[in-house]
């Protein structure tokens, strides 16, 4: 019997790395915007919450029928919902012959099913109170809604993937799941006194002004992902509106044009990029005043030079730009060398805790500056150097 309940947990362990990878960047961006950092104890709690939700969901849908047609023909217990409240008492009493002693109950499958249904959403109540700081009424509503989602998923045969319901909709499950979540909410009270305090505002005051290598790397990856997504959508829609050969023909020019807008014009005009803005960074002069377009242009063309070279190498490989054969062969190596010189050196400097900043910062006289609040404007009005540090802090950067 317990093998049936362990199977979904094993599946959750298998699937969790993929789920974590998918939500990694959005979760980190939210961390910087809400708490001023992407790490720490709250992150561990969050990912344990994600794993728990995945395991709970799989617990309600697994094991899956191996032969759907045969199952739907021969098994009909789930065809009708069980709508009688507290029917589990009669099931336990019947299975135990009316004997409710602990020794007898320990060997009854209906007793274990009832207990596990009560425990299934108990951790949800703990998370709702400790991690999400929800009051009892709202936590109860969330738990009931979650249980209702599980039950309807079962009754619809995994939302009509299967030809018939293979797990029964049971009103007792709704009651037991919700009651278990309420017990978890109350149990979280003593835990809150011994676990680290979940106070995003206090963390923001402590960490929001720090400009770490991880924060800059996340901004860079967010920009890169955003640009690729917009490019894919633009070329895909172009191909749909015209033809596949037309979309393929214009794919590289459209990507290059979007790259110029994304990595050069946006920072030159707004002193930030979508990725930087997502993690609350902007570009200023070292004294905190606004950097001019020429300085930002110089910085952009240096910092994103390796990307431009990589794009040129790709275009030459796929579209044959007409470069001499030697130049075409050297482009990938030149891209790698530029990446090492522009990005590698500053990264090493940060890791060695050297404070002089990146060389292209000194050339362009621009630095990354932290926004201490999501509503703070990206481009502040020009200020005198003496008062420039009143709303931000910075440390030397590695790249981007």
From TrEMBL:
The keyword Transcription does not apply. It is found in: Membrane. Its main location: membrane. Coiled coil: none annotated. It is a multi-pass membrane protein. Residues 49-187 form the VanZ-like domain. InterPro entries: RDD, Teicoplanin_resist-assoc, VanZ-like. Residues 373-400 are annotated as: Disordered. Keywords: Membrane, Transmembrane, Transmembrane helix. This is VanZ family protein. It comes from Streptomyces xinghaiensis.
């Amino acid at each position: 019997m317990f093998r049936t309940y362990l199977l979904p947990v094993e599946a959750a362990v298998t699937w969790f790395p993929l789920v974590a990878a998918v939500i990694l960047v959005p979760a980190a961006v939210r961390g910087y915007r809400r708490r001023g950092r992407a790490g720490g104890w709250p992150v561990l709690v969050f990912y344990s919450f994600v794993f728990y939700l995945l395991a709970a969901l799989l617990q309600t849908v697994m094991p899956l029928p191996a032969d759907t047609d045969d199952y739907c023909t021969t098994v009909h217990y789930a065809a009708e919902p069980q709508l009688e409240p507290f029917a589990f008492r009669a099931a336990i009493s019947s299975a135990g012959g009316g004997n409710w002693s602990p020794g007898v109950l320990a060997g009854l499958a209906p007793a274990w099913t009832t207990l596990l249904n009560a425990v299934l959403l108990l951790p949800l109540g703990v998370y709702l109170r400790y991690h999400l700081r929800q009051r009892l009424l709202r936590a109860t509503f969330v738990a009931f809604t979650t249980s209702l989602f599980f039950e309807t998923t079962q009754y619809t045969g995994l939302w009509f993937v299967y030809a018939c319901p293979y797990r029964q909709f049971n009103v007792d499950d709704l009651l037991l799941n919700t009651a278990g979540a309420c017990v978890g909410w109350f149990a979280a009270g003593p835990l809150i006194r011994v676990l680290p305090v979940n106070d995003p505002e206090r963390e923001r005051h402590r960490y929001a002004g720090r400009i770490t290598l991880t924060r800059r790397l996340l901004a860079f990856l967010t920009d890169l992902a955003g640009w690729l997504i917009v490019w894919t959508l633009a070329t895909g829609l172009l191909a749909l509106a015209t033809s596949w050969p037309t979309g393929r023909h214009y794919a590289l020019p459209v990507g290059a044009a979007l790259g110029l807008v994304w990595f050069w014009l946006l920072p030159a005009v707004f002193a930030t990029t979508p990725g930087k803005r997502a993690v609350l960074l902007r570009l200023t002069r070292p004294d905190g005043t606004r950097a001019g377009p020429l300085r930002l242009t110089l910085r952009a063309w240096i910092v994103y030079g390796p990307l431009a070279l990589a794009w040129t190498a790709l275009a030459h490989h796929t579209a044959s730009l007409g470069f001499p054969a030697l130049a075409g062969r050297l482009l990938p190596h030149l891209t790698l060398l530029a990446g090492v010189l522009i990005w590698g050196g500053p990264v090493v400097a940060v890791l060695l805790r050297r404070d002089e900043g990146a060389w292209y910062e000194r050339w362009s006289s621009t630095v990354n500056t932290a926004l201490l609040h999501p509503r703070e404007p990206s481009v502040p009005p020009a200020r005198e150097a003496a008062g420039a540090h009143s709303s931000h802090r910075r440390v030397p950067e590695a790249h981007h």
